[in-house]
Amino acid sequence: MPSILDVAKRAGVAPTTAKRAIHEPHLLAPETLARVRRAIEELGYEPDQVAGGLRRGRTQTLGLMVGNIIEPFFASLVRTVAHAAQSRGYALIVTDNEYDSALERANLRVLYGQRVSGLIIRSGYGAPNLDYLERMRERGTYVLEIDYFYPGSPFSHVMLDNEGSVFEGVRYLHALGHRRIATLGSYDPVYHPEERSRAFPEALRSVGLSPVEEYQRVITLIEPEAYKLTLELMRLPEPPTAIFSLNGTEAAGAFRALKELGLRIPEDVSLLTFDNYSWTALVTPPLDVIEQPVEEMGRAAVEIVLDAVEHQTPDKVVRLRFPGRLIRRGSCAPPRRP
Amino acid sequence: MPSILDVAKRAGVAPTTAKRAIHEPHLLAPETLARVRRAIEELGYEPDQVAGGLRRGRTQTLGLMVGNIIEPFFASLVRTVAHAAQSRGYALIVTDNEYDSALERANLRVLYGQRVSGLIIRSGYGAPNLDYLERMRERGTYVLEIDYFYPGSPFSHVMLDNEGSVFEGVRYLHALGHRRIATLGSYDPVYHPEERSRAFPEALRSVGLSPVEEYQRVITLIEPEAYKLTLELMRLPEPPTAIFSLNGTEAAGAFRALKELGLRIPEDVSLLTFDNYSWTALVTPPLDVIEQPVEEMGRAAVEIVLDAVEHQTPDKVVRLRFPGRLIRRGSCAPPRRP
DNA sequence: AGGGGTAATGGACACGTGACCATTGGCGCG
DNA sequence: CGCGCCAATGGTCACGTGTCCATTACCCCT
Fold first, then answer.
1. Is residue A210 classed exposed, middle or buried when 0-12, 13-18 and 19+ CB atoms within 10 A define those classes?
2. Is the Cβ pair A70, B75 closer than 8 Å?
3. What single-letter DSSP state applies at residue A126?
4. Are B256 and A115 inside 8 Å of each other by CB?
5. Which of A43, A135, B151, B327 could potentially form a cystine with A2 if both were Cys, beta carbons 3.0 to 4.6 Å apart?
6. Tens digits of per-residue pLDDT, A21-46?
7. Which of A 31-90 have CB under 7 A of nucleic chain D?
C-alpha cells in the first residue's frame, strides 16, 4: 500500500514535490516530473481518496438513491449515472428506498456518514425527509431530486414533462374515440402529490371528459397492486375502454390481469403506458408507450451536481424538464361499438 | 458539520469519553452516557466515515462490479447486495464493466482509490485483470467473484451450478423428443471459457447426441447478436427444433427473431432459457426458464466478504454453488414429426 | 554590481477519527 | 490503616493527503 511518501523517497524528492507531480505538474522541472512519474508507475501508486477526502473536506463520491433498483427506469438511471460519475473520477454509492421514506432516512444517514459530495435522489412516499436533505446540504452535499420533487423543495431537479406527457396520452386515446379512460396512478395523497396522477383529471377535462372517481384510483407502486386494480376496473358495471398506466411497473400488472381475464388488446381494451420497457415490445400485441429519455436525464443530473460541486456554487439551482415521446405499436385502437 | 469534539464540548466531557459513548458505552457511567447521547442527538452528530476509514485503515464501503446493470440478473444483484451491505452499516459503490476488461480495469482503479474493504466482481471479457485484483487483495481488499471466475483464480466465489443446470435443460429437451438442439452461448474463447457454453456439448453427449458445430456458436452477450444468430440458425437447411438460450438477455433477442420469422412457439420451435426474467411470463407463450437464486447468491456473497473483513481472515476462501430451478410454462413441447 | 523577481523545491500542519497509554478517585480486603 | 485494584475519565498521536508558507538559486534589468 504505497503512499505518496514512498513515491517521493523512490524519486529522491520531497513529498511536496511528489504531490505536485499529480496536481500541478507544470510547476516541476521536466526531468523531476519524469522521475516522479516513473516512481508512481513502478510502485503502482494510486492516491488514497479517503485521506484526500478528509483533508479536502469533500470526497470523490456521489450518492444515488432510487425508488427500486429492479425497475428498468432506475436500473438504467443507475447505469448512466455511474458511467457519468466514473468519467469525471467520482465513485457512485447506490441505494434504494423501496418508496418508503423511513427506509430512505436510514439510507440517507449512511450517505451522510460517507460525506458524499452530491446526492441524486428519487424520494419515497411517507413523511418527507426534507429536513434531513436540508442538513446534508448545509454540510456541503449538493442535492438534486430526480423523477419527483417535494412540493416547495429548494433543491435542483430533473424531471420528465409529466403534465405534457399525460395530456398527450389522453389526447391520443380521446382522438381514437375513447371516452371511458381509466388510469393506474400512484401517490401518497398526503405527502406526495405525484404529478402524473394529478394531471390526469385535468387532461380529461381538457378534452371535454369528466373525471370518474373509480377510474383514477391510486395504489402502491408495485406490480401486484396494479394487477389487482386492473381486475377490479374491468369488472365494473361500466368498465373502461382504455387503460392508461402511469408507469411501466404497473403496466406489467395490468397486462397480466387483462391476459388472465381473456380480454383482447386492443379489441376489447386499449392499453397505454409510461416507460418504454423492453418487454413492452415483446408481448402480443406490442404496447404503445410514452418513453422517458432516462439516459439524458441521468447525464444532466450528474452534470448539474458535479458542476456545482467543483465550481463551488452550492446555492445554484437548476431545474430541467425533458419531454416524453409517444411510441405507437398497436395496443391502442378505437373502442368497439357496444 | 459537528464533529465528536463538538459533542464532547456540549456534554462537558473529554473527546475520548464522547467517542466511548459510541464504541464502548459499557465503560461509561450511565449518567455520563446519557449526557453524551443527548448531545449527539441535539447536534445531529453522525460519525465521519471518511476520517474513521483513514484512521482504521479500512472503510465502511464495499465495491460491486457487474457486467451490465440493466440486465435484471445484475439489477437484482445490485439491489440485494446494497440491502445486505446497508444492514451491516456498509455503503455500496456500484460500477459495471459492460463485459469489457479494459473498462473494468479503469473502474477497478477507482475502487482501489476508494479503498473499499471488499469487492464483489463479475469480470468482463478480454485480458484478465487477475493481477490487479491480486494487488487489491494485498492492499487489504477482500475479493469475491460472482457468476463467473477466472480459471485458476485464488479468490472466493459464488456461482450457479452451471453444469448441472445445462445438463438438466438438455435432458428436459431430449426427453421431449428433441434431437436438434441449438444453443446461444457467450464467451471469449481465449480468456473466458464460460461454464454454460462448455457444458453444453458434454450435456448433449450425455444423452447420446453429437454436438453440431453450427448449433453452438458463441456471440457477444447482447440482445442484437442473439437476434441475428437466431435468424441464421432458423435459416439453416436443417434448423434446430429447440433453442436453449444460456442467459435471459440473449433469450429476448431469440424471441424477437422467432416472432419476426412467424414461427410458432412451441409448435415450430421450442425455446428454453436461463434467467427467470419477468417478461418471460408475460409473452405468448410464457417461456420455460431455469431460474437462478439471485438474491440468495447476493446475500451469501456479502456475508462471505464482510465476515472475512470483520474477522480479519483475508486468506479464507469460500466457494459456493447454488442450484438452478427449471420452471415449465409452455414454450417447450415435442417437436413436430417432419 | 546589486536588488528584485521567478522558477523550482522543501517543510509544517490540520482534517476527524481510533488506538493506546495515563490519570484520578473510591472501595474492598487483609 | 494501608495497599492494590478497578471503574471512570482524560490526553496524545498517527492515518495520507492538500494547502499554505518558506527557502534556495538563478537570471534579468538598471
1. exposed
2. yes
3. S
4. no
5. A43
6. 999 988 888 899 999 999 999 999 99
7. 45, 47-48, 51-52, 54-56
